[in-house]
Amino acid sequence: MKDELVIMSSKIFKEVFYKDFVQFYQDLVAQKITELRLNNYTFRGVSKESYKLIPSALRKEGLKKINKLSLVKTDISQVDKDNLVQIAAEFNIVYKFYNIANRQGLNIPQVIDFVDWDTENLYSIFKNLKTWIPEKYYEIFAIAQHFGIPTRFLDWTFDINTATLFAVEGVHKRIVEDSSIDVNKENFSIWLLNYKYLPLYRNKLNCNIRLIVPKYHWNNYITMQKGLFTIDIIKIDKNKRTALPKVIENGKATLNNDYYSEGLEEKILNSDINKYKGLLPKETLLYKFSFPYSCINQAYNLLKYFGYSYSSIYPGLHNIVDCIEYEQNFTDRFCIENLRVIE
C-alpha cells in the first residue's frame, strides 16, 4: 500500500493514516488491506481525527442541548454515567418530540408509554425500567436522533461512500466556519466496525454494545443514508427507579458535561479481549483510517464520480436549496482537482 502508515495495530483495533485518499479506495477495491472484507463492516465518517465514538446525548454539545430542550432544567455537576437525571431528561425530550409529531399526523411508530403521560403512568413506566434505552423505544429514538434530538444512539452506515460524504461535509463546514484552519495540519477519519463479529466480541468487552437497524419506512433520511446505530445499554439500579418520576415532575436536577469522555474505541482497547485471541475471528473488530484535509478534493471528486452528493443523504424538496448552496460553496471555496479514476 502506497502512502500508508500504520499508527496502531492490534488484533481488535487498527489505526491507519493515508496521505492519498484515492489510494485508500484503490486498496479497498483491490482488497489490499489485510483481512478486510467490506461486507462485514459498517462505517462512520467524522470531520476531525480526534473525535471519539461517543453518542450525541453524551457529548458536551449534546448535554447543553438536552439542558435547553428538556423540562428537567439542570446545572452542571458530578454524576455517574447511569445518572437518572440524564435518563429522565432524554425521556422527556423524546416524549415532546413524539407528541408534537403525532399531533401533526406525521408517520411515526406508536409508543404507548408516550400517549398517556400522567404521574401515575410515569411511576409505572420507570418502576419497571431495567435498562436504558429499552428496546420498545428504539424506533422513535432513531427518528428523533435523525431530526436533531441528542440520544445515546451512535450513527453508522452500511455504505462507505455515505460515511465519506458525512466526513467531507463536516470538513467543509469546519473550514467555512473557521478560516484559520490549516488544511495541512488537520485530519478527518473513517471508522469501520465489524458488525458481523460484534456479537462474538461483545461478551468480552467492557460495555454492552448492541447494533440497531431501524425500520427504514419510518424515515426517508435513514433510508437514503443506509443508516444504523450502536448503543451501549445501561442497566438501571432497581433501587433508583422510583426517583425518576419525581425528577421529571419537579424539574430540579443536575447533569454533568464530562462524565462520559470514554469512546467506544477506548472501551475496546481497555478491555481484556486480547486474552481471548485464540477464540476470536481473524478479522479486526475496529478500523480507523485517517486522511489530511489537503486531500478533501480527492474525496469530494471521487464521491461525485460515484454519484454521491449532499442530496444523497438529505432528500426532499425542502432541502434542495441547501443542496445547491452546499455544492456551490464547495466549488467556490476549493479548487476542484481532476478526478483520478481507479484503474
What does this entry look like structurally?
The chain has 343 residues and is of the alpha+beta class. It has one domain (4-333). The chain is 38% helix and 17% strand. The protein has 14 helices and twelve strands. It has helices spanning 21-29, 60-69, 84-103, 112-115, 119-127, 138-146, 160-177, 198-202, 220-224, 243-250, 264-269, 296-305, 310-313, 320-333, and strands at residues 4-9, 13-18, 41-46, 74-76, 131-132, 154-157, 187-194, 209-212, 227-232, 234-235, 253-255, 286-292. The strands form four sheets. It has a five-stranded mixed β-sheet with strand order 1-2-12-7-3. Strands 6-9-8 form a three-stranded antiparallel β-sheet. It has a two-stranded parallel sheet with strand order 4-11. Helix 3 (84-103) crosses helix 10. The relative contact order is 0.21. The model is unreliable at 74-81, 254-259 and 336-343 (pLDDT under 50).
Write a concise keyword list for the protein shown above.
alpha+beta; 38% helix; disordered C terminus; three-stranded antiparallel β-sheet; five-stranded mixed β-sheet; 343 residues
Helices and strands in order:
Layout: E1 4-9, E2 13-18, H1 21-29, E3 41-46, H2 60-69, E4 74-76, H3 84-103, H4 112-115, H5 119-127, E5 131-132, H6 138-146, E6 154-157, H7 160-177, E7 187-194, H8 198-202, E8 209-212, H9 220-224, E9 227-232, E10 234-235, H10 243-250, E11 253-255, H11 264-269, E12 286-292, H12 296-305, H13 310-313, H14 320-333
Parallel strand pairs: 2-12, 4-11
Antiparallel strand pairs: 1-2, 3-7, 5-10, 6-9, 7-12, 8-9
